[in-house]
Structures
1.
Amino acid sequence: MSCIVLVGMPGAGKSTIGVLLAKETMKDFVDTDVLIQVRANQSLQSIVDNSGYLTLRQLEEEVLLNLSLQNHVIATGGSAVYSDAGIAHLKKLGPVIYLKVSLEELKRRVQNLPKRGIAGRPGITLDELYEERCPLYETYADLIVDCDGKTPEQIIDEIEKFVGS
């Protein structure tokens, strides 16, 4: 288990923390949202607009199940936790770290929810998405990092202590 897997809400900082954590731990970095976009040759929002959010979730599961990585920090899409099989596969690669951010903080960070390619039912609000997903993140997490009020360095230190880097 040489990877570190980051999960959390859109706007939680998975990609930002992931890149910094990869540098700190001397690992490669991959963002599964980017892998989905490359595979589909379109943006996440285009996938949702053209084929629906369930198609995006299916593509995400396929990408997760096909990951064969070592020594990577993996930033997942916010909807990765909808795939039991995908999360089970990720857990074989390394610990799952939930970057927990309060709803209030997410509302400050995420101003463009309808354009972010969210794999949620049409018209879902950030409040509803938060209520639906947070229990899933908590269920699958090997470590929950409360990110509110912390610097990226503090978050990375907490993760490193957990994974033993």
Note: The longest helix spans residues 126-140.
2.
Amino acid sequence: MTDEIKKKADTVIASTYARFPMVMERGEGCRLWDTEGNEYIDFVSGIAVCNLGHAHPAVVKALSKQAEILFHVSNLYYTIPQVDLAEWLVNHSFADRAFFCNSGAEANEAAIKLARKYFSDKGEKERKVIIAMEKSFHGRTMATLSATGQDKIKKGFDPILQGFDFVPFKDIEALREKITSSTCAVLMEPVQGEGGVRCPAPEYIKEVRDLCDETGILLIFDEIQTGIGRTGKLFAYEHFDMEPDIMTLAKALANGLPIGTMLAKEEIAASFTPGSHASTFGGTPVVTAAALEVMRYMEKENVIGNCQEMGDYFLEKLLVLKEKHKVIQDVRGFGLLLGIKLNTDGKPYVDKCIEKGFLINCIQDTILRFIPPLIVGKEEIDALVMCLDEVLG
């Protein structure tokens, strides 16, 4: 059955992924099962999406209940789940307004458009350029790949869009030198996820905020991977005693259903007027009902507290592995966004872990990334660490 499905998929689905040779059939909590009955402990979570694990009963109940009432009516009308989710996000963040779409790339597109329109509305039409970071990742649409600081993402898609400059991550002087009278915003991830789990010093983030204030430009935080509790705070910006002007979310917001959100302060969000931006499927009743239940459940059950505790525990275990295995150059990250940098290709270790029943992720060729559900416990972490100890040896 598995071979038949793979053969069919390779015939009819675009080859945009180098897929692993298994067909996932069902999931529960931190575990997945394939069509051959093999069980895996999941430290990928749909790439930081399933923060409450697979088939979480509270989310299933919320979306099923809403599906029986109303699927879709268009954003020409108000719907209760969308309004309630927007209110929850605004009340729990720096922002005053939410714009809903379907993905992280779309949320970043909205942020790019809003930053430029805000200055255009102010009469500063020359302010169009957005400064992003080298090794960043912001999406695969033409605008967001143009804003991504990795050449491999852009290869073959010339001409890319203009209006983006790049500076090294964690280099405040390079950023200062790049800002001109044409700059409208800085776009950055507070922690670079796909770029290698690269974490800045808190002082750097504060310096970026101060520099944006000093020069009158906006600060956009891409929290598509770091948001919704992944770093041990609801949003990663909370670690740094500052606030961005615009923030983008997606991935874990609805625990697997497609949703993106751009949050912004009132003065800036006011530049999005009727007809200036839109999304047909943005914030549908079913998806926003599920997302609202995710938010409420995380708050009620202190899921972020578990993320903090398990993140610290996991980090300690990885540091012990580093002392034991010379192949590990560095351990990085916080919360349950963690990685180990190897001095060799990481893919063979991913394959070995899969053989032993563990799903992990390799990025930037040499970095093993661990992004389990935020409900993960010591049992699953200990099992993976034991596996890593064996395969790294």
Note: The chain has two domains: 8-55+302-338+363-392, 58-300.
3.
Amino acid sequence: MSRDDLDGLMVFDGVCNLCSGVVQLVLRLDRRAVIRFTPLQSPFGQALAAAHGLDLAYPESVLVFERGRALEASDAVLAIAARLPAPLSWLRGLRAIPRAWRDPAYLWLARRRYRLLGRRADCLVPTAAQRDRFILDPPPGWR
């Protein structure tokens, strides 16, 4: 698996109620199944987070891979929204706002997410129907 094969992969904090809620929403709305997931707490999530400089103990950002690039913070959220059906896909227009203005709002929420919405004792467990959208272990040949 090359970096290009990661396209549409979202690395999320699996114990965060906000993050898990977003994943559940994306699973319901992404009928084309173009977005895949790996929790930060999985072996693959930890490898990707470490490779991209995320703090494994307290990550402040989600990672989303798009065309071989790892996107963080507001860029990651807008990349996910762009892959969803309208009207959520229209949020990609917010990329016109400078990242220097978007990211502080994202980071404000990210730093307070546990206090505002809580934390799970365990990672989100996908249903049998959702399991093929989750990658937990690094695929053979991943580098």
Note: The chain has a mean pLDDT of 89.
4.
Amino acid sequence: MENAGASMSKNDIIEDQGPIIVFDAMCVLCSANARFVLRHDHGGRFRFASMQNETGAALYRRCGIDPANPDSLIIVEGANVLRDSDAVLAIYAGLGWPWKAMSLLRLVPRMLRDPAYHWLARNRYRIFGRRGTCWLPTPEQASRIL
């Protein structure tokens, strides 16, 4: 058997370890959401990359999103990418109960969900504020941040 690891890139190894939430670490709302997920993701399913770091920016570019002006958070799992309201609902579905109940909002058509998501994303700094520095995880959380 060939050594499969020898031909794998760093990005392949990173992406094969589970879903990555790429978010804006300067955004107060986005950082609060990342902390919420870290606190409630008891199985350690999700990992995180900020759009401000090399990994997050590369994942955004791969998805055709400008990391300097993103219009969505994304979840990347291998070749699969979720964005906009689908990404948010997938996060809550992945947290288990009671948060999984939020995934029932998938019954609302995307054509109604996504405009609300885009409005909030465009206005996130004005409504919730912008951090002076990127949010940093606690030492316990650091292993889940790429």
Note: The beta strands are 20-23, 47-50, 74-77, 80-83.
